[in-house]
């Protein structure tokens, strides 16, 4: 199946999860993340701020702050060759809603953080396979960002989002780890 069809079907699946199910899945997945050395060993964590139908990342963000970690969130530059930069978030008041319902840091209220400062990057996705290949939202932002990223990459997923096979193209860079409500997949 083509990525575009998979993406559309994945969004339908994600939207079909009820609010209470989503909250419970997000919490179970995050609790597994909190127990990993990847989380515990990280001082700076890169993560997207989830929008309505995605797994909720705000619980993870609160836990990171509680554990005195820095949280950095991406801002996209579609006009600049789909570049993405990360900014240090200390409060949800520093976010603004941009296109497609996505929340991004306001550059004037936050400080930019360079790629090599990030210890753990949580990579969003719609579908994953067991090698870490994924179908994302189609901006190609993370494939570009991961090209020269050298620290730990991890994705949050429900069991249902793991497929046996994902179409790949030459730009795709797999994530190192996937964690579901049942625990670490790899
Ligand atoms: N919460 C959250 N933030 C995130 C991501 C994410 O997956 N989740 N991203 C993950 O990468 C980046 C944003 N990704 C984006 C991907 C596509 C479009 C977009 O404009 N899509 C078009 C359709 C494009 C197409 O058809 O190919 C649209 O919605 O009209 C915007 C942002 C960074 N922030
Ligand atoms: N490193 C790259 N350099 C140039 N173009 C790229 C690169 N990575 C991806 N692209 C292009 O970006 C578009 C989206 O890529 P793809 O379908 O893999 O997105 P995705 O993995 O779902 O999205 P994302 O990485 O934002 O989560 C494609 O047209 C792809 O060719």
UniProtKB/TrEMBL annotation:
Residues annotated to bind ATP: 3-7
Example of a GO MF term: ATP binding
Keyword Metal-binding: yes
InterPro entries: FTHF_cligase, FTHF_cligase-like_sf, NagB/RpiA_transferase-like
Keyword annotations from UniProtKB, A to Z: ATP-binding, Ligase, Magnesium, Metal-binding, Nucleotide-binding
Cofactor: Mg(2+)
Domain of life: Bacteria
Family: Belongs to the 5-formyltetrahydrofolate cyclo-ligase family.
UniProt name for this protein: 5-formyltetrahydrofolate cyclo-ligase
């Amino acid at each position: 199946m083509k990525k575009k069809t998979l993406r559309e079907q994945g969004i339908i699946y994600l939207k079909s999860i009820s609010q209470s199910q989503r909250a419970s899945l997000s919490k179970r997945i995050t609790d597994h993340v909190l127990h990993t050395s990847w989380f515990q060993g990280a001082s700076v964590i890169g993560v997207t701020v989830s929008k309505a139908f995605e797994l909720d990342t705000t619980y993870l963000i609160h836990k990171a702050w509680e554990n005195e970690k820095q949280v950095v969130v991406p801002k996209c530059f579609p006009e600049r060759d789909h570049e993405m930069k990360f900014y240090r978030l200390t409060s949800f008041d520093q976010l603004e809603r941009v296109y497609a319902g996505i929340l991004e840091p306001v550059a004037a209220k936050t400080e930019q953080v360079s790629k090599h400062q990030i210890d753990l990057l949580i990579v969003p996705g719609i579908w994953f396979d067991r090698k870490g290949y994924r179908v994302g939202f189609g901006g190609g932002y993370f494939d570009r960002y991961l090209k020269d990223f050298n620290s730990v990459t991890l994705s949050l997923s429900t069991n249902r989002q793991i497929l046996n096979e994902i179409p790949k193209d030459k730009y795709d860079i797999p994530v190192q780890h996937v964690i579901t409500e049942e625990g670490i997949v790899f």
